[in-house]
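Bumping with the actual sequence this time:
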Amino acid sequence: MTPERTYHHGDLRRAVLTAALDVIASEGPAALSLRDLARRAGVSHAAPAHHFKDRAGLLTAIATEGYELLATALAEAEDLRDLGVRYVRFAAAHPAHFQIMFRPELLRPDDPELLAARERTRSRLRTAVEGYGDDPAISSMAAWSMAHGFATLLLAHSLDGPLDGRDPEEAFRALAGEMFRPAGKRAKG
């Protein structure tokens, strides 16, 4: 006789999020299904829907958590270069979050928690670029593009050759030093 399966879980929400992050990191977001996550967590197939309603709700929760983690990481930055290094470090430490955060077609775009977490991150970037360039919006886009592009290339292993064993964070710091100098310290053309 087999023991009766129980559907109670100490922290089902966290267990499902952790299982989802594992699936995304190893197989990508397309492989994600609530039914599979329920099986992995040892609960009924309907249990994850109680917390997330559907796949978009789960992915929105992952993106929200990612933005919160990123905002916390960026809050400690000393300057714009350090902010970029922390962005790259976040992507390397949380690749599944990073994959989902920038895929709006997978998310609930009007989720208030997502919007608030995203704004905290953007606000930190806007504050960091003050004093760089003549247009803060352009400077913000440039800094984000560089850090995001570097992080994306790093995660895809496209920088393995160019880095040639160099520490990615130090390489990014040098790159950012070449690209971003405070206004008044740039070479006049």
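The tokens above came from a reply further down the thread. The CA atoms of residues 132 and 181 lie 7 Å apart.
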